[in-house]
Write a structure and sequence with these properties.
This protein has 536 residues and is α/β, with parallel strands linked by helices. It folds into 3 domains: 10-228, Thiamin diphosphate (ThDP)-binding fold, Pyr/PP domains (Rossmann fold, 3-Layer(aba) Sandwich); 233-343, 3-Layer(aba) Sandwich (Rossmann fold), CATH 3.40.50; 366-527, Thiamin diphosphate (ThDP)-binding fold, Pyr/PP domains (Rossmann fold), CATH 3.40.50. It is built from 18 helices and 24 strands. The strands form 6 sheets. A 7-stranded mixed β-sheet has the order 3-2-4-5-7-6-13, with helices on both faces. Helix 2 links the parallel strand 2 and strand 3. Helix 1 (15-25) crosses helix 2 and helix 14 (366-378) crosses helix 18 (510-518). The chain is globular and about 75 Å long.
Length: 536
């Protein structure tokens, strides 16, 4: 990656590498994350290079902690970057929405990496809605090069507004490659003195009411900035107008001809006057965006408020789908686009269709051993398997078929408590991973102890946040920036909480593991295994 490239150097970079370069050029002094695809490579990069650039970086226990730590840094006056996948924002939303009230003293950018089509996620929620909910400015890049430049602008906007900025990417930005030109690296303070301001930063109800008005006023200023922003621009000409943002803009450029395009990059608040002026002389408008009709619904409102009568085509008209990410084929052939715009010739397709490759547990994975042992120990008993999201989610696949519900990280243990109280005559076994346990599995375990729920919790410990790239977590310890932290032992943690029976087993020893699981006195056990090192 171009982490030390001199100004003007051009490289072919992954989107996440380009974003890393952007935050280095912006002079970020503090960065935090909980890893999640499609954002994970940014953290992998920073783990290697942050120290070179005098940047503090941490893998936090979960996204809420990452947001809280980053908030403190930004309130102190240090440029801050916090990043996560889209479902991680659900975890971080509690502090984020109140952070908007008091705001920040130095630039803070919050990256949400959305995953249309749910390539590696349990849903494909549209996090643009968080920008409206929190009244935060939002930027959306379309390419790796734009992502690098736009994330830098996000810090400037944040400092002008004294608000964090939501930076929304999608999988096809994070994991695409494009030519990126390196810029100057900005020198900013990496440490500062925190200055107390109770009315601004202590959002008890009396202060929150005042800060709510402050936030609304800043939102009006953000709307003015959006109107003037060069990230919102018109290109092309024609009586048919296309309004688009994010990756679909690249498909519009590739597939449609003879249209005028309003490309939006500063997407909350929208540049309403610019949109109205764009629509006034058009025969029809096509709104092309992935997932929810976030832009489209606001464009209908803008047209009505400005007395503009023009047909608007998109999701509401049935011309474009709401589900899943778009591709050039979506623009070329799906549901009626031919009615409203001329298209380029479709791209040639390869003669051979590649076979699908479903996900599977890695060869030699210890999770195979535990699923086999649990199945043997359970026998013909009626059991509900309550699982989390992670590598062990693949236990839902044949031949194991050992997941009856998956909600979110920590949800397996949390839901197990509910199942244990209402499922008649069925035992409950919850599966969690080691990173997931530290992320959000401890609290539901505490709740289970407090409420006297009876179920078995299995923590599958492979000593890594494995699904997103083997990042460290509290159960692995960490060596970074001249400091070394010790790994937390899961068995010690659960016994410290008050669990009566906890035992570590080796899932490669199927008989011993099966015998342990078959015992009647268990409540939770952790799984450990030998870590193999391959030397060539």
């Amino acid at each position: 990656m171009a982490e030390t490239g001199s100004k003007g150097k051009r490289e072919l970079l992954l989107g996440n590498d380009a974003i890393t370069r952007g935050i280095i050029e912006a002079g970020v002094g503090f960065a935090s994350t909980y890893p999640g695809t499609p954002s994970s490579e940014i953290g992998n990069n920073l783990e290697k290079i942050a120290q070179k650039h005098n940047m503090y970086f941490e893998f936090s226990a979960n996204e809420k902690v990452a947001m809280e730590a980053a908030s403190a840094a930004a309130m102190t006056g240090v440029r801050t970057f916090v990043f996560m996948k889209h479902v991680g924002v659900n975890v971080a939303a509690d502090p984020m929405l109140t952070l908007a009230y008091g705001g920040v003293r130095a630039g803070m950018v919050i990256l949400t990496a959305d995953d249309p089509t749910a390539h590696s996620s349990q849903n494909e929620q549209d996090n643009r809605n968080y920008a409206k909910l929190a009244l935060l400015p939002m930027l959306e890049p379309s390419t790796p090069a734009e992502a690098k430049d736009m994330v830098k602008k996000g810090f400037d906007i944040s400092e002008e507004l004294t608000l964090p900025v939501l930076f929304r990417t999608t999988t096809r930005v994070n994991h695409a490659r494009g030519i990126v030109t390196a810029g100057d690296i900005k020198d900013t303070p990496k440490k500062n003195k925190f200055v107390r301001d109770i009315k601004r930063f202590v959002n008890v109800p009396a202060n929150a009411r005042t800060n709510r008005i402050r936030l609304l006023d800043l939102n009006k200023k953000a709307a003015e900035m959006s109107e003037a922003s060069d990230m919102n621009f018109v290109e092309g000409s024609g009586r048919i107008g296309v309004i688009t943002a994010g990756v679909p803009y690249t498909y519009v450029k590739e597939c449609l001809i003879g249209v005028s395009v309003l490309k939006l990059g500063f997407t909350n608040p929208l540049p309403e006057k610019k949109i109205a002026d764009f629509m006034k002389d058009k025969e029809k408008i096509i709104v092309i965006e992935e997932l929810e009709p976030f832009l489209e619904d606001q464009i209908f409102r803008i047209a009505r408020q400005h007395n503009i009568s023009v047909p608007i085509h998109g999701k509401r008209s049935g011309d474009l789908p709401t589900a899943f990410e778009y591709t050039p084929d979506t623009i070329l052939s799906l549901r009626g686009i031919a009615k409203v715009a001329d298209k380029k010739e479709p791209l040639a397709r390869p003669a051979i269709e590649l076979p699908a490759r479903p996900p599977t547990l890695c060869a030699g994975c210890p999770h195979r051993g535990i699923f086999h042992a649990v199945r043997k120990a359970v026998g013909r008993k009626e059991v509900i398997y309550s699982s989390d999201i992670g590598c062990y989610s693949l236990g839902a696949m044949p031949p194991f078929m050992m997941a009856d519900m998956i909600l979110c990280m920590g949800g397996g243990i949390g839901a197990a408590g509910g199942f244990s109280e209402v499922a008649d005559g069925q035992e409950v076994i919850a599966f969690s991973g080691d990173s997931t346990f530290f992320h959000s599995g401890i609290t539901p375990l505490v709740s289970a102890l407090f409420n006297g729920h009876k179920f078995t919790a299995v923590v599958l410990d492979n000593r890594a946040t494995a699904m997103t790239g083997h990042q460290p977590h509290p159960g692995t310890g960490r060596q970074y920036g001249g400091r070394t932290t010790e790994a937390l032992d899961i068995e010690t943690v659960v016994k410290g909480l008050g669990v009566k029976f906890a035992e570590t087993v080796d899932p490669y020893d199927i008989k011993a593991t099966t015998d342990t699981i078959a015992r009647e006195d268990f409540r939770i056990w952790t799984l450990d295994f030998v870590l193999w090192t391959l030397e060539f």
